[in-house]
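Q: You know discrete backbone vocabularies at least as well as I do. I have my own habits and do not want them to colour yours. No explanation is needed for now; the record alone will do.
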Amino acid sequence: MIVLDQENKLFTLHTQNTTYQMKADQYRVLLHTYYGPRLRGGDLSRLIQFADRGTSPNPNEAGHRRDYSLDTLPQEYSTCGVGDFRLPSIEFEPADGSRLADLRYTGFELKKGKYALPGLPAFFGGDEWETLVIHLTDSTCKMSVKLYYGVLERCDLITRAVQVVNEGGQAVQLRRCASLCLDLQGGDLDFITFDGCHAQERSLSRSPLRQGVQSVESVRGTSSHHHNPFVILCDHNANEDCGTCYGAMLVYSGNFLAAAERTHLENNRLLLGINPYHFCYTLAPGECFTAPEAALVCSPCGFGQMSRSFHRAIRENLIHDPLEGKRRPVLINNWEATEFGFDAEKLVSIAAAAAPLGIELFVMDDGWFGTRDSDFGGLGDWTVNESKLPGGLGALVPRIHDLGMSFGIWIEPEMVSEDSALYNAHPDWVLEAPNRPFARGRSQLVLDFSRKEVRDHVYGAIKQVLESAEITYVKWDMNRSLTDVWSSALPAGRQGELFHRFVLGVYDILARMRRDFPGILIEGCTGGGGRFDAGMLYYVPQFWCSDNTDAIDRLTIQYGTSFCYPVSTMGAHVSAVPNAQTGRSVSMETRGVVAMAGTFGYEMDLNHTTAEEKETIKRQVAFFKEHYELIQRGDYYRLSDPFHDPFTAWQQVSPDRREALVSLVTHANRAASPFRTVRLRGLDPQAQYRVNGGEAWPGDVLMAAGFPLPMPTGDYQAMQLYLEAE
């Protein structure tokens, strides 16, 4: 709900549990007055204090009033070079070379429904949304800035976006344009980020905000394995169930910057948006630039409530896929079983072993096209290698269908090998600076997706493949960071637009694929989880969580991912042991329980499993299908911290609280270990729950006292508790 006080230029945004407020003051400076637990209303600018801070300058309009400074006031969208020395939200350079941005309030719009961003992913919905647009102007440079706010009350979600318009008569270079600025007055806060590397993505890092700037970023061209474009500011005492926390997510898949600054006055600023590294966007007179969307959730009741709000909003109002909400098939992928060394007979044999166990989709991974027998060739040539697959897909796919399975395929559209017909024909289509040797990644180069002719060629070739057979699944991969970022299609003065234009090009092809093949399930992948972000999830309902399929490593990877992203988006498979990444062996039961914390599938040759393991797989698949809605769409609770506790446990609860599933994996065992209990969450305290069809337990006992765990008799043992209310 958006409440306006036009006389006082006061704007209040209410969600179910929170209030967000801003006000244009007597100098038309847009101040941020409050964001936190829901309040009844009123003008909260009374919370802002004024004092002469000596070295903090004062705007011209304030005259000799020395207690009014942009350097100390909470800004709704921070300016640049005119008195605020903290992190700027925007920076532009007009023809005179000055880099000042002095934005003042000029008006607003209030609309029913949700705004959209042309060419960019964004949350969507109908009349349950409200949109507020605040107009700011730098009158000297004739630059107009529109701040967009979307309010989804039931999810405590507030979205932010920014549009910059050059209303002057000369070109202006936009050098920085954040999507979100959040100023919080006072309070000691922690800064939480989700960091790692390839095969160890999204580990939670938490540290107190200290004076100065703390930040995470990506300059790799993707959101990256190393830092995720989702961060949290929170109270020092915040945990799963208590404390105020602010989650901020960028709906974008390229270079980003998330920076938190704490001042000597103990004020805190969070900035989130496109990374200003190598960013310079030229706006001719009348042209506009739209920054990607950011989304905020404030939870007065800890991380759990925040996560569940994001999960619901992402599932219901971000994933723009006609298959979202429908049960997705349990799949088997051949990569870890064969890598490049397969032919049609080998693929059919893997599928034939999987079909009787209830597995429904066979996915043919890398190596089916061109001269693709290794990492060194074939990328870009999207034609079937008939020496491996005689008769092409037209011969292979019906054989898979005859087993009662559907068929999927792997692609990597953004890349090209030097040993390929495409590169030989169009070497100028790659990112490569003139007169410099290029860098390789995984022995491949990056196609210039900022160019429409490149995108048209690549998509045309892939479209032809997808139309050649009944294909119901596509795995879209991307296996290297961007280097040598220079385009022969852009003049020297516009090369700073290339990183962003590349991301827009990826979105363009994904949008075309969604339009032309609405029945195909697309799973994203970027060397595993290197582009696991909300921007990609707008186009693909699930993303390969990590190339690391070791079940024990996956506990921490999936734990960190769950703080923002729902289970239904996390690609997770059971793989063979010893695991290819770690050499570790754990039971089929444990691997299955961990993979059920995601989309669920298998990555192995089931011809090499025992009869007992096959029976276990058959039970796992049947259990997952039976409880699909609960697992994929239930309210998610983290019951332990895998970095500090002796076990990892999580829980899904149905919306009506009539059923729940608890999954738990013990860590390394030790002698004389103490007795353990796990305290459940989200149940009806008045209900009686039968546990795995046996003894009934009161809901309040399970939550307050916990459920006793059996003593582990080895390392990495798993259990699941299915609870059903009587």
